[in-house]
Amino acid sequence: MAQHSSKHNVYIAGGPGGDSIGPAIHNYIAGSLGLDWTCEFLRLSDVNDVMTLFRRDDFAGGIVTMPHKRTIIPLLDSVDDFAQDIGACNVVVRTPSGKLHGTNTDWLGIRNAVNATEKNENSGQHTAVVYGAGGASRGAVYALAAGLGCSTIYIINRDDNEVAALMADVEAYRHFSRPRLVHVTSLEQAETLQCPRYIICTVPDFEPTSPTEVACRDILGQFLQRGRQQQNILLDMCYHPPVTRNIKAAMEASWTVIPGFLVSGHQFARQWELWAGRHIDSHTVLTMCNDLVRERESSKVVAAA
User: Fold this and answer.
1) How far is residue 236's CA from residue 130's CA, in Å, rounded to a whole number?
2) For FRET with 207, which of 37, 45, 81, 237 sits at 20 to 30 Å CA-CA?
3) Gap between the Cα atoms of 293 and 305, Å rounded
């Protein structure tokens, strides 16, 4: 029997046009725990509109996606060391006193997804690439440095100011040693750098159009081609669509790929522990994530036929 309480709404807050298998997964988890909670995806461009819903008495927990991961921080009552060091918040918890507390589980999802793929065979120091310098890049850098032992991380991004802001955030780490960040701005520079073990993409799935966007894509492509047959890993934080342009490019270059929905799946256990103080079976939830994505992609093929 479901447990009834005043709080029962879980929200995934993203921008207009976003999509997610998250509501179906979180509704399943709530039911398995005997909670009458429901999950809804919010397509809101203004983070203040997100906060209006988060402040309601029926708010049970929140996930924050692009483009709100950074802008929500000053609007919360408190954040923990992870959100503070990373400079981005993707999970909001309602405390017993009714305050809104932010944390970051993106880095855990990245680390756990990579470890599951490598079967914990990761050893030694590696270099990595982060493609993008927005809110999601913060969790990626932290996961690579704190979770996967990468001391040098190359940044590919179209906007120099965004890269400077990311570097400033990493320089301000208070609770973990800082990795060395290198802004890669040309193919010529990329050729002089060590091929990365990991590439983490943190940008939406779009076709590059501007000269700087095309240049970034070409730099990424060069790293992919140099990493052929080396059992390297590309992880894409974007999960809409499940198979992004960057994942397709990595597969064509024979890289191992990790889609974004699996990164989300590897965070669910921690998120529900924070919201409800309950344990969930992560293996069952990850299997459900895979099944839902396959069903959605199959239905699209049928609809297009």
Assistant:
1) 10
2) 45
3) 19
Least confident of 89-93, 103-107, 204-208, 279-283: 279-283
Which amino acid does the sequence have at 70? R
For strands 100-103 and 91-94, give the pairing.
antiparallel
> Are 65 and 44 spatial neighbours (Cβ–Cβ below 8 Å)?
no
Identify the active-site residue in 69, 119, 248, 300: 69
Interior/surface letters 21-51, b for 16+ CB within 10 angstroms, e for the rest:
bbbebbebbbeeeebebebebbebeebeebb
Q: Which residues of 128-161 are buried (b: 16+ CB within 10 A; e: fewer)?
A: bbbbbbbbbbbbbbbbbbbbbebebbbbbbbeee
The answer regarding whether domain 8-103+261-304 maps to CATH 3.40.50.10860 reads yes
Structural domain boundaries in the chain? 8-103+261-304, 108-258
Q: Which two tokens stand for residue 256?
A: 């191992």
Query: Does 108-258 match 8-103+261-304 at the fold level?
Result: yes
Q: What is the pLDDT of residues 24-38, one digit of tens each?
A: 899 999 999 999 999
pTM for the structure as a whole: 0.88
69 carries an active-site annotation: yes
pLDDT, position 301 = 41
CB–CB of 7/62 below 8 Å?
no
Query: Which pLDDT tens digit goes with each residue over 128-145?
Result: 999 999 989 999 999 999
- CATH H-level superfamily of 108-258: NAD(P)-binding Rossmann-like Domain (3.40.50.720)
| Bridge partners of residue 300, in order along the sequence | none
- Where is average pLDDT lowest: 64-73, 110-119, 277-286, 289-298? 289-298
Identify the pLDDT of residue 122: 58
